[in-house]
Specification:
By secondary structure, this protein is an all-alpha fold. The protein has helices at residues 3-26, 29-36, 40-46, 50-75, 79-84, 104-115, 117-143, 153-174, 177-193. 77% of the residues lie in helices and 0% in strands.
Length: 194
């Protein structure tokens, strides 16, 4: 890896938690220079603008989250156990290691919806990827008779995703983890019912 590549990686590693906590609009150049210890010139010598840093930071946070979740899903023995991994966010068994600041999809999506088309597209792609991975799991479960053949994989995948993201949103917005756990409990029952 060249020195320039190492510097870019360092900038992303140090700014990713800030973008994930404060969002695109809330993250200032001062935040970036303070976190990295670099000058404005050093940051913009490696990235054309704040947009590029934000996109690279989102990708970094998403990759970090996916790597952990995929590894946990790969350890599960059944399809339903794989589908349950993301529902354990609030329980005593917390296999989810979200990047600092929480879920990058939930943190980035609402802000980017009206303000940053490129970030919005990245979040949409990430949700679509999650949906496709979930559909493949459900189809595997139907194939091995673990899941009812009457299940619509696309509909079930979107329902699971919406329930999980909704649980996180409600818990974080209200500050009441028990609300999130309540929704996750219903999500687990839904997965068991498939």
């Amino acid at each position: 890896m060249s020195k320039a590549e190492k510097t870019k990686e360092y900038i992303v590693e140090k700014t990713a938690p800030i973008f994930n906590k404060k969002g695109f609009a809330g993250t200032s150049l001062s935040d970036m220079t303070e976190a990295t210890g670099l000058t404005k010139g050093s940051i913009y010598g490696n990235f054309a603008n704040k947009d590029e840093v934000a996109l690279a930071s989102f990708d970094y946070n998403l990759r970090k989250m996916r790597t952990y979740i995929n590894a946990e899903e790969d350890k599960a023995k059944t399809v339903k156990e794989k589908l349950m991994i993301r529902t354990k966010l609030f329980g005593k068994e917390r296999p989810i290691a979200y990047p600092e600041g929480g879920c990058p999809l939930l943190n980035t999506g609402p802000e980017a919806d009206d303000t940053h088309p490129a970030l919005k597209a990245r979040v949409a792609d990430a949700i679509e990827s999650w949906k496709q991975r979930t559909i493949r799991m459900i189809e595997e479960g139907i194939s091995n008779k673990e899941i009812s053949p009457d299940t619509n994989p696309g509909q079930a995948a979107l329902t699971i995703i919406s329930m999980i993201q909704g649980a996180i949103f409600v818990a974080r917005t209200t500050g009441k983890r028990e609300y999130g756990e309540s929704v996750m409990e219903v999500t687990r029952k839904y997965i068991q019912s498939l």
